[in-house]
Design goal:
single chain, alpha+beta, Ribosomal Protein S5, domain 2, Pdz3 Domain, 18 strands, Lon_proteolytic, membrane, hydrolase, EC 3.4.21.53
Length: about 350
């Protein structure tokens, strides 16, 4: 048997080793990434400083504001633990955020979505103010793949398709109609642009199912999701400086700000008006993600009115319902106004009394 001094030395030695191991493990945990993102209320930002319409008037008694969601990569387990306890925080797995897209593909997709959103907002806002704008289709943007597509691995998200078998096709409908005449197993030569480079590749066509309101429809094609890539020539120049705000969800509010700078009447009428929703060139408002966070962001910045996309499709659309539920749950002093079109939002504001 050893002496008490030796036993004590062994005890403290083991304890120091355990302490050192724990310290090392804790230190390493700072560098172990997690497959999660944290989503929280972002900001509600006034649009007048961001949007400039040639010959327009930026003066507003109130304010039109876009709303954002704050996204943070849980780069270690400490951030993840914070997410479980922080108020108004939603935790999502990485594959829920960007699927199986590479960082390059995801960046291309976000850039396209923001560019399209701004083009759509400019067209919708100007046309609502009875201003002319010409739209040119310059290609078809590949935004995703259908399961079973033979194009995956050959084409990439972000590619802009502009010809098939040497035939110029710059709209989704004409490209789809041309390919639909062919049979599964046939190959077509696709001409496309990727990061500014002109490329050509042979792609085998497949049969796939498209879900429609009338039921499932079998089609032949590339089995990809496509969107029109456009260029616009407006009667008035419109500049939108949105910095690092990405995605399409500010479309409705951009178009309202453009409209307000052109028309004689100030449609804000002294109110602080926030909102969200995608916009088409025809002024249709679409559903977005993270609306509960945006409602909180709007309220934090003193918004009194919040435009939310109207829930049109019962089984899919939930924006207006979720926005109203969040306002009621948190007791926010905010009126949620569901709208299906830009014109509905304009009509609502026109009927408001001027704030005293």
């Amino acid at each position: 048997m050893g002496s008490k001094r030796e036993d004590s030395a062994r005890f403290f030695g083991k304890r120091n080793i355990r302490g050192a191991v724990i310290t090392v493990l804790l230190a390493l945990s700072f560098f172990i990434p997690t497959p999660y993102y944290l989503y929280q209320p972002g900001s509600a930002e006034e649009l007048a400083p961001m949007v400039t319409v040639e010959g327009g008037d930026k003066a507003e008694k109130g304010a039109l504001m876009l709303t954002t969601v704050s996204s943070l990569k849980a780069s270690n387990y400490y951030y993840l633990a914070y997410g479980y306890f922080a108020p108004h925080t939603e935790i999502k797995r990485e594959n829920e955020v960007r699927g199986d897209l590479s960082e390059e593909e995801y960046s291309r997709l976000l850039a396209h979505m923001m560019k399209s959103s701004q083009h759509n907002a400019i067209v919708a806002g100007l046309r609502a103010a009875e201003q002319s704008v010409q739209v040119r289709n310059v290609g078809v943007f590949l935004s995703d793949f259908v399961e079973g597509s033979k194009a995956k691995g050959i084409l990439q998200v972000g590619d802009i398709l502009h010809a098939v078998d040497g035939k110029k096709l710059v709209q989704v409908q004409e490209l789809s109609e041309y390919i639909a005449q062919k049979k599964p197993g046939e190959k077509v030569e696709v001409s496309f642009t990727r990061d500014g480079k002109e490329l050509k590749e042979k792609v085998e066509l497949v049969e796939f199912i498209v879900k429609t309101t009338a039921g499932d429809v079998r089609r032949t094609g590339l089995a990809v999701h496509l969107e029109n890539e456009t260029e616009i020539d407006p009667a008035r120049n419109v500049k939108i400086n949105a910095d690092d705000i990405g995605g399409p969800s500010a479309g409705l509010m951009f178009s309202l700000e453009i409209f307000n700078q052109i028309v004689a009447e100030d449609i804000t009428k002294g109110y602080r008006i926030a909102g969200t929703g995608t916009i088409t060139m025809d002024g249709e408002v679409g559903q977005i993600g993270g609306i509960r966070h945006k409602v909180v962001a709007a309220s934090d910045e003193g918004a009194e009115i919040f435009f939310a996309p109207k829930d049109i499709k019962q089984e899919y659309d939930t924006n207006a319902q979720e926005a109203a539920d969040e306002v009621e749950k948190l007791g926010l002093p905010l009126k949620v106004v569901p709208v299906a079109t830009l014109q509905e939002a304009i009509d609502y504001l026109k009927k408001l009394d001027v704030k005293s």
